[in-house]
Model the fold of this input.
Amino acid sequence: MASSLLSPSFTSFIHTKDLSLSTFPSQRCHKVVSRRISCSVATPQRQPSTTGSVKTAMTMTEKILARASEKAQLSPGDNVWVNVDILMTHDVCGPGSIGIFKKEFGEDAKVWDREKVVIIPDHYIFTSDERANRNVDILRDFCHEQNIKYFYDIKDLSNFKANPDYKGVCHIALAQEGHCRPGEVLLGTDSHTCTAGAFGQFATGIGNTDAGFVLGTGKLLLKAPPTLRFVMDGEMPSYLLSKDLILQIIGEISVAGATYKSMEFVGTTVESLNMEERMTLCNMVVEAGGKNGVVPADSTTFKYLEGKTSLPYEPVYSDQQARFLSEYRFDVSKLEPLVAKPHSPDNRALARECKDVKIDRVYIGSCTGGKTEDFMAAAKVFLASGKKVKVPTFLVPATQKVWMDVYSIPVPGSGGKTCSQIFEEAGCDTPASPSCGACLGGPKDTYARMNEPMVCVSTTNRNFPGRMGHKEGQIYLASPYTAAASALTGYVTDPREFLQ
Amino acid sequence: MHQHPPIVKEGTMALFSATTFVTVPRNLAFASSNKLSFSSSSSRLLSFTTSQPNPGISVTFHTPRAHAPSSSSSSATFHGLCYVVGDNIDTDQIIPAEYLTLVPSKPDEYEKLGSYALVGLPATYSTRFVDAGETKTKYAIVIGGANFGCGSSREHAPVALGASGAAAVVAESYARIFFRNSVATGEVYPLESESRLCEECRTGDVVTIELGESRLINHTTGKEYRLKPIGDAGPVIEAGGIFAYARKTGMIPSR
Done:
């Protein structure tokens, strides 16, 4: 890999140079990169044709896959064997992936790289379900046997804080622990692995069999997807979050609109988003059928990564002449808060159009809507209203770090109150132990699982029948702003009622 | 509440350009000539867990399975009752998340997964795919609409269908990961129809799929329908998944 050829001290300062190079439509072989020079400003602005290094312009996703397959270039539709930088698995699919790995490669086989396999128990943790508990034990045994470097274990289920290694929701933990790096390939046995595309990398979900294959070989045969480009410009209104943007897009292109395709998010609005908001955007590309989502890495990305990873990385960017299957443009300043009505993420409606929908509960959590910024957003609405919630409001921080943030970071304009204090004053349920929680239902005793046919406004990602537990449950997907506003009224509510 | 509210504020979004420059074939080309070296410590060969044959379902292979496996001209046929579902059948409906504690690579849990296949369908489906108390389905073929298998990446979904004894799904289109997992595991043939068969067939109709002819025959109605060729994915599924196929074709050492 190119990254391994670079010096370990490769930091964000050097990315500035790389950025300046990469913004030109030049496709560079990684061996050229390894002979990098230290100039940072006066990069010659040659046309690609004069460098001789570019034959075909490529998108970000094509470039990442080309580099990972050790090819100078590739085109959408090409099937290539890709070297995997990180393979992530969790308690739901890990045991099955391990089973296939052992069956196919032998009981004594070793994983291809003990430092590139990241194992994160997160789905069914705080449950008395014996099989769920056993599955975490299987992960632990495997990690010990294989000396896996990154295993975020939990043993004491009664108090997650007694488990310093435990993180929580894998996609958020991957980012927080520095496993997401621009230009790399990250595969995971979870459809929301695409979240990591926020870091300008290729990230997608795979099944157990493919994961078993990667465990043994470090490679996977992937088809290079064509790219849909979403250009979002305009100032983000104060009442919108990136959840609204992705619900807008999915509503536009449908739950199958990006099937087999990559979704690239660019534009001034995207550039203004923090990393967690970019993660929300990429997180839900799979709800449009997308193979992966990408946001070009920039100074926001590099700043987030400071101190999180010591490994060198090299971002890539779409060439100016790169071909996109379609390009969609949005004026974000004109959008309004949205929901996805039951039972499909593309069943888009304006939040204000659903103001007569009476709800039974609100859920704030998951890889989509359980990050620190999501809780800060919800707290902002509660703070602005000064009122109490009218329906049970469940809060499930994605990770232990998010949980600590909820209990420690002062909310701006609150006079120093933390999210947890604001939530308590608003009458919300106490923030629960970090995990995937009730986003996908799970075992019957899962906290906040919908065991009755209720109506829920949720910051999660899917609202297909039965998703949060009960088949007749109705889930309205919404941003943390809209979820908090709805909690305050007991109806689906446009957050402008409280934020303006 | 409106049923279908394509509420788009005028001018908030415009299709800037939509020039198609490439047709993406849906079939994965597993018959790649790329060479990979595998660090396979050879030990005992464990075959893929396969379901017990169901008396109501007949699966016939006319392809000489030991030879020419890279040929996509399989002439397998599947015959039996069909079970019809609609559009966007997501993985939670195929196998609800509460059953994901079952590990597909453990034979007894594999069987249990089969008993829960399609149990997440809403109550509007009055006929169960697998009868209560049974582990196998009496339906050989699932017929669906668009975007079958959307949602999560859980391989439990094609495994549950395969473990229940179903041989094939015929849908208008598939979500990517479900298609891939179906091929990788060899659990079930994810076949695409040229027309909307979920509106042409009814649960309980007797159908035959002739893979080599890319044809589905509904004996109950007497109609025939074209299917899209399964292509290079066919031999992979027929072999029993990517590992079995790779061993069969010499991509990785057999043992």
